[in-house]
Amino acid sequence: MTFNWKKTIAAASFAALTAMPAYAQEMTLKLGHLANEDNPWHLASVKFGEELAALTEGRIAVEVFPNESLGKEIDLINGMQLGTVDMTITGESLQNWAPLAALLAVPYAYRSIEHMDEVASGEIGDQIKAQIVEKAQIRPIGYFARGPRNLTSNRPIAHPDDLNGLKMRVPNVPLFVDTWQALGANPGPMAFSEVFTSLQNGTIEAQENPLALIRSASFNEVQSHVNLTEHVRSWIYLTIAESTWSKLSADDQAAVMEAAARAQAYERALFNDSIAADRAYLEEKGMTFVEVDGAAFQAAAKDAVLKNVNDEIKPIVEGLFSK
Q1: Distances (CA, A) of 258 to 33, 141, 181, 231
Q2: pLDDT tens by residue, 210-244
Q3: Torsion angle, CA of 195/89/39/44, rounded to 10 degrees?
Q4: Per-residue pLDDT for 312 more than 50?
Q5: Is the per-residue pLDDT at 182 higher than 50?
Q6: Taking 70 as the threshold, does the pLDDT of residue 153 lie above it?
Q7: What is the pLDDT of residue 23?
Q8: Which helix (H) or strand (E) segment is 296 a member of?
Q9: Could you tell me the end-to-end alpha-carbon distance of the chain, in angstroms, rounded to an integer?
């Protein structure tokens, strides 16, 4: 994440290290994640720890480990299942255990962030969380937003017809490849480290990523347009190991949930600020933002998306598309 929160991090970290609890500390939760210290997810994790310490009068502390310093995402999930890690931030990787977790990042399933919130906090979200608890022995306690993925190019693309065989890089995910083929592009997997040079020399003409990554990768130097396709909206869970959860009293479980709710609201404010800041930066660097026909993109992508999702989530995805 490129939005600069270093002053806030320094203050939060100092407060977390120097705060003196009113009662003796009884438990320290280890929370590992993949984001760096500038990322709102990390700041929200620190906020969670501060709130939980306050709510439990210092009895429960949270130690946050950013930058995969406690392990990679799958390692952390395995560690939580084994009881060596207490918490992490994770999302659709959980579909390895709980198939419904694939719903966290389905192209064109969520028409707006409000729609995504409605699903994540509603009946479908409850089904996803229940299956994660049952199958993965990990409990989601809150969720953070991810920036929507947008298409960059050197010409405006407002409708699928404008793609016209556009050579573009996509992650090595069959769902992404098939979806962009259905939309009319010519997608191909490529290591992210090769994308800038390939755009520069014309090997590819376009790529797709959230604004934060478009900014941090300096794609504004080799691409002129950001087409607001917003083709993938997704969220990611703040989670606690079920084995850790079961050790908490009912009052402490309530405190964990309240601290997570506060951290979730805090992260959303940071997220909104960062989206605005990234767009302002890219516009200042000369990129043109293009509004697109979202309904046309969604309609063209639907069959490819449904072909690539598993049978368990297909009826839910069909319902999301129909709305």
Answers
A1: 21, 9, 44, 32
A2: 999 999 899 999 999 999 999 999 999 999 999 99
A3: 160
A4: yes
A5: yes
A6: yes
A7: 55
A8: helix 294-308
A9: 32
Residue 17: Cβ-neighbour burial (10 angstroms; 0-12, 13-18, 19+): exposed
Query: What are the sequence ranges of the domains in the chain?
Result: 6-146+234-284, 150-231+286-322
Amino acid making up residue 96: N
Query: Distance between CA 236 and CA 61 in Å, rounded?
Result: 23
Question: For the domain bounded by 6-146+234-284, which CATH number is listed?
Answer: 3.40.190.170
CA dist 28 and 148 (Å) reads 34
Cβ neighbours of 46 (radius 10 Å): 23
Class in CATH terms, 150-231+286-322? alpha beta
**Residue 166's beta-bridge partner residues?**
none
DSSP of 95-156? GGT-GGGGGGG-TTS-SSHHHHHHHHTSHHHHHHHHHHHHHHSEEEEEEEEEEEEEEEESS-
Q: How far apart are CA 323 and CA 34, in angstroms?
A: 34
pLDDT at 323: 74
Q: What is the mean pLDDT of residues 40-54?
A: 97
